[in-house]
Amino acid sequence: MTTETIADYNPNRYERPSITVDVVIFSLINNQLQVLLVKRKYPPFADIWAIPGGFVRIDESLEDAAARELAEETGVTNVYIEQLYTFGTPGRDPRTRVVTVAYFALVPQDVIKHRPGDDASETGWFPMCNLPELAFDHDEILAYAQTRLRYKLEYTSVGFQLLPDIFTLTELQKAYEIILGEALDKRNFRRKILASEVLEETGEKKKEGEGRPAMLYRYRDDAVAEVKTRRLFP
User: For residue range 113-134, what is the model confidence (pLDDT) as tens digits?
Assistant: First the structure.
């Protein structure tokens, strides 16, 4: 029986798939859940819209690659992203065997400026209910991301990430309704969200329509949202 050492290892013994990262950026725009896409400049899928992303370099982490590709293709920086899922169906990329690690982020529309980079001819926001033709398996990735987002509403403070720092309860409820794709009872929503103790009043009010000014709230930094908002919504 022989014992193989590191020095004996031959890296060419096995085929090695390429690794890419893709970054899904969601925002609420014009009362719709929208995603930031780039139009690819080069083949494959030239002139087709896609999720921002690209190949991982040999000397960088997945997170660093995702941040770099997002900045290179859209100009977007300093956005918190979290890992979503790994997609590796054979044949998903016509160039070679490619496994992609998808990330996603939720941002208010007004906090980022986007522009096309070297590998993209355009960038743009698109409603999730009216997407263009997409490259690779990016329709599958976006469908999964939207499902995950809806699920996360049940146990995290994810909805607050799509809003400005201060907001009314009406604006918060609207954000949740857009993501869930269904109407929520106003009285029940307010009772549950206030009972969760993840919000605090700012002491300021905002004029909403013809009624009385509405109280402005902010998300409490010390709130344990993962526990207190569990199963908050249907």
Answer: 888 887 788 999 999 999 999 9
